[in-house]
Amino acid sequence: MAVATHCPYCALQCGITLDAGTTPVGLSGRNFETNGGALCRKGYSAAQLLEHPERLHSPLERGADGVLHPVSWERALDLVVHQVRAVQQAHGKDAVAVFGSGSLTNEKAYQLGKFARLALGTSRIDYNGRFCMSSAAAAGNKAFGLDRGLPFPLADLDRAGTILLLGSNVADTMPPFVRHLESARENGGLIVSDPRRSATAELADTHVQPAPGTDLQLLLGLAHVLLAEDLADTEYLDARTWGLESLRISLASWWPERVQSLTGVPASVIRQTARTLASAAQAARSGGKPVYILTGRGVEQHANGTATVSAAINLALLLGLPGTLAGGFGTITGQGNGQGGREHGQKADQLPGYRKITDPAARRHVAGVWGVDPDIIPGPGIPAAQLLATLGEPGGARMLLMHGSNPVISSPNANRTAAALRRLDYLVVSDFFLSETAAQADLVLPVLQWAEEEGTMTNLEGRVLRRRAALAPPPGVRSELWLLAELAARLQAPTVFNADPREVFAELGRASAGGIADYSGVDYTSLDAGAAVYWPCPAGTPISTAPGERSGTPRLFLERFAHPDGRARLEPVYPQPAAVDDADLRPGTISLVTGRLLEHYQSGTQTRRVAELQQAAPAALAQIHPDTALARGISDGQEVVLENSHGRVEATACLDAGIRLDTVFLPFHFPETQNANLLTGDAVDPDSSMPEFKHAPVLLSRLERHE
Amino acid sequence: MSERLVIIGFGPVAASLVEGLLPAVRSKDLHLTVLGAEERAAYNRVLLAEVAIGAAKPEHLGMADESRLRAAGVDLRLGTTATGVDRARRVVHTSGGAVPYDRLVFATGARPVIPSLAGLNFDPHADSTLPAGVLALRTLDDALQLHSVLRGGGKVLVLGGGILGLEAALAMASAGFEPVLVHHGPAPLGRVVDADGGTLLIRQLEAAGVQVLSGVRATGVQKKDGRFHALATDTHGLIHADALLVSTGVRPRTELAEGCGLAAGSGIPVNEQLMADSSGRLFAVGDCAEVAGRRPAGLLAPGWAQAGWLADFLLSHPAPHPSAPAPDLGCLPGPQAQGGEILMLKGQGLELTAAGTVQAGLFDDPKQQVTVYADPASGRYLKIMARDGLPTGFMALGLPRTGAELALGFERGTALPVDPSLLLRLDAPFEDAQAPAAGADDQLCRCSGATYGQVAHAVQAGCSTVEEVGANCRAGTGCGGCKERIEELLRLPAQA
Question: Which Gene3D superfamilies does this UniProt record tie to the protein (chain B) (predicted)?
Fold first, then answer.
């Protein structure tokens, strides 16, 4: 029987149809608004994950022999409970930590947060979205008082005349997104900023190629020109924002010639780009084609990621775009449920509904829904990178429950993360394959895959989608909702944990009611009937199931921004005087940027197990400029070494004149000696705790094999 | 008790230092007093020419947010002139009373050099009163004066072939005024251009609307009714104009430092750690500082690098204890002496980026790598000098992207490409030529991985639309970027 659901991978959540009646399971593109029936290679081949021979079918316990052995669920649950009790008795509640994921359904993300706070009584919960959306989220909250990746439906881009895309390679990461760039491309208005001539930059009418780590300066230069040449929309700024004068002062020192000497982008290009944006925005305000500014991980995954997104938002505000029909600002969420994952309480500082855990009113409300005393909800925990780095150390957690994440590959400074996991007293990993992180666990719990579970996902535009079960799970596999409910009961949690997704969603709705991300007006019945619902959607909001109609809040901020006074904030950005890293100045050092390939998703746990994808991209290729290679005696296809103080990676050279001379690119999907995150460092953003993934100084050389 | 730090001067470099110190001011670990002689907080001198031509508003030049700094706890005293420093008692005397300090930073900047021409008062230490119609372009008042001259339709002579004079002249030309640039060398920017580059630069300046008079030896100014009337020269006789913009360099303001016993050279002498004496309490940054014997650059970037370094230093090293000797910091690296000073010039149809020196000829020094590209008809000229692969100087005229990349590399000390002509291609007006014809095994559709062969096969099997091809082999069903390539294959005549 054919079931309408969504692709398991990225935040575009392309509509697909699964037919479990055929062997192998049939998968085809479905005419859904974000993908219009299109799929990428990852999506087309996703069904190969379903009856995969490497699928885990039984809990695995590491025996005295150091090997993982199958055990019963009964024993597995008892082991977890026993370990939680022992560790907490000896080291306190916070000695047990939970690590979640932007790939979990809303229901699981919500339940995980509740489980940590009530069943474990720990403050130590955070998730891999910290490595993904946290900088954009922090900047969005500061500027608008609310963070939803795209505050407008993706389809709004279909009318765009101009799109400035900063650090995002959608042509590889979410190919069907490119269909929404068509209008801007036809208009000659796609501007892409990327140190690489990426597949997306290839599509651009203008490709701006700043040196890695200088996106912030480029944006300050663009904003400087808007103010210096009187191109900003002062009427809009007066009516809808605060802070123009402070912003103006902060931008005074970023004239284009100075920015040129820092970014490598010519002053004339900076001026021209600013003028192009300004005239397009002016035309858009009088009924022309809209103008959008969109950011991706390329500019966000830096130690100044929040400041960089603030600078991009400032640019959009100066152009008078956000909260109008003339365009807007958005960030392109990456993980499948990267949006919902950051709303329901698996973040260290958050309760469901995007509420602050430190806000007494928020604690009272959520405690009311949970039927507990607000005082038993722990306070804020610590962000992901810190949570992982301190594992097994004094003050750090000693036991970790990992759900839907593979930080051995995906966290920065992977050597350090692997060492931290080894310091743990006990590591429990829930996954459906033996990921590199699961392979280090003391206990592995086999859980449901996407096509076996019911639930909801919130896509990159803040639309709530139904994920549907198309086939029965293999025997021995359990849902994480069941697992959390069983553990909570055994741990004598002070409240009930439901295992039914529909019930959990209804509870999540009540817990979110009145919060920023209010889901209380959304239910499975209307979603199943085809309603297109965007949060916030408070209880009582009329929901339409008519095709083509949108419910909830498809477009945010049209009347007011989410700050109490309704105005957006221009956030002056003062880059700290460049902390010159000595390693950066060493002769011969070049900049490593990490990123994604079309064929793989995140840590590759899934896509490296799909033959078609693995065949197409079997190993890490280091993209190097031919001249940079020549200077190091490297030829195409040769083995190379990249190294710095954090680690060493081996890869195969792929010469490409489309990358800057001072830059080398590595995908981060591959394990062991090819793991790009062996080279990324410990620096994190002061606001968001986002690690610096996109810039690391490395030395590049030919791999010398010694006999 | 928190440390008392006093900064004398509130220009852009001081503002950057204050920014770096702000966390400690907020946490009350530092009591920071800033003395600014002007009534205005730090402002952007780079835009003064824009103000003069009416393209920028004076009120938009601010570089420091007065209210933000005050809210953070900075004791900001504008319109307060420092009159003396008592090093023994550690007090700065000012027009508004005495200010005690634990550590003191001179950020007094520089003032324009007024050349010794007959008719101009020459006093190196005075903010001299110039005759009407003679002005420098250092303060906002100067810019407003120039603005009123220009608005009155006046003709302006710019004296001096340095970067600031050129910028002012180009700004005026861009607004439709007709400035005349007068300088004494063979070409403006003497040290950073070579003979051919200089000739082309003059040609480009003229094309941008700046009349250039080279090799001029000025001797005096002639006044009429007390106003500037003409520049007297040995070489070109009298050159008449309504105003003379003097742009012959700047001189550090050192009198305060000298007054308290610090010897002045070409600035306030400081060591690599920016210290002006052995007490560990006196520092100097920016245009007033002669760091380890190096003459101040007169550019902002080195000053900002010093400010960033000094902020870190002050926050991480507490003031010396009154009774203890100053710690020996001889081995502590000072602010990074960056690759060097980079000059950038903009104007209509004129883009110049240059650094270092490029005057040596192609064969002057066998150890010097020299690269030259010249296309004067299109206004393009490139010369790169390098030693051991590292650039020691370059000039890029009419080649914006090349210039930008060279500047970045020069700043960071990156090696030149093995093949420097690569840099030129960055400014190619079009993309590389089409890729060679694709073979059957080459990928046509990135999203699905479908090859040209597979699509051709689908066409032969009877598919006649992009959709049918997609249904057959998935090509074109992802991002849609290969639609045109599929359409091309559909248009090919059917194979027999």
Answer: BFD-like [2Fe-2S]-binding domain, FAD/NAD(P)-binding domain
A229 CB neighbours in chain B (<8 A) are: 55
- Compare all CA atoms of chain B with the CA of A199 and give the residue at the minimum distance: B446
Contact B130, B120 (CB under 8 A): yes
The C-alpha atoms of residue B173 and residue A272 are separated, in whole angstroms, by 20
Task: Please check whether residue B417 touches A, CB under 8 A.
Answer: yes
- What is the identity of the amino acid at A319? L
**Contact yes or no for B407 and A260 at CB 8 A:** yes
User: Quick one: which H or E segment has residue A597?
Assistant: none
Residue A204's closest chain B neighbor by CA? B481
Domain B3-111+251-316: assigned CATH number:
3.50.50.60
Distances (CA, A) of A48 to A39, A176, A617, B107, B114: 15, 20, 16, 67, 80
Which listed CATH number (1.10.10.1100, 1.10.10.10, 2.60.40.10, 2.40.30.10) goes with B437-496? 1.10.10.1100
Contacts of A182 in chain B (CB under 8 A): 480
Interface touch A585/B413, C-beta < 8 Å: yes
Q: Check the CA dihedral B291-B296-B301-B307 and report its sign.
A: positive
Best residue in B477, B482, B483, B486 for a mutation probing chain A (most A CBs within 10 Å): B477
Interatomic CA distance for residues A429 and A445, integer angstroms: 6
The reply to whether residue A261 touches residue B342, judged by beta carbons under 8 angstroms, is yes
Please tell me which residue of chain A has the smallest CA distance to B13.
A253
pLDDT tens track for A384-428: 999 999 999 999 999 999 999 999 999 999 999 999 999 999 999
A584 contacts in chain B (CB < 8 Å): 412
> For the domain bounded by B343-425, which CATH number is listed?
3.30.390.30
Identify whether the C-beta of residue B80 lies closer than 8 Å to the C-beta of residue B36: yes
- CA B422/CA A609 separation, integer angstroms: 41
For the residues of B228-251, what is the DSSP string, one character each?
EEEEEESSS-EEE-SEEEE-S-EE
What average pLDDT values come out for chain A (707 residues) when binned by 10 residues? 94 96 92 94 94 96 97 98 98 98 97 98 96 94 97 98 97 95 96 96 95 96 95 97 93 90 93 97 96 97 95 98 98 95 95 96 98 97 95 96 96 94 98 97 97 97 97 95 98 97 98 97 97 97 96 97 97 71 68 95 95 94 95 95 95 94 96 95 89 92 82
Q: By the 8 A CB rule, do A593 and A665 touch? A: yes
Token duo for residue A409: 């590959």
Scored b (16 or more CB within 10 A) or e, B17-31 reads bbbbbbebbeeeebb
**A365 neighbors A490 (Cβ within 8 angstroms):** no
> B481 to chain A: nearest residue by CA?
A178
Q: Are B146 and B139 in contact (CB under 8 A)?
A: no
Q: Tens digits of per-residue pLDDT, A325-355?
A: 999 999 999 999 999 999 999 999 999 999 9
Question: Hey, what are A318's tokens?
Answer: 């100066």
**Is B471 an 8 Å CB contact of chain A?**
no
What are the backbone angles phi and psi of residue A563, rounded to the nearest 5°? Answer: -70, 155
ipTM: 0.83
The answer to whether residue B338 scores a pLDDT higher than 70 is no
**CB contacts, 8 Å: B175 with chain A:** none
Chain A's closest residue to B54, CA to CA, is A229
Q: Where are the beta strands (DSSP E) in A45-95?
A: 60-62, 68-70
Q: Which of B43, B56, B344 sits opposite A257 (nearest CB)?
A: B344
CATH domain A134-332 topology: Dimethylsulfoxide Reductase; domain 2 (3.40.228)
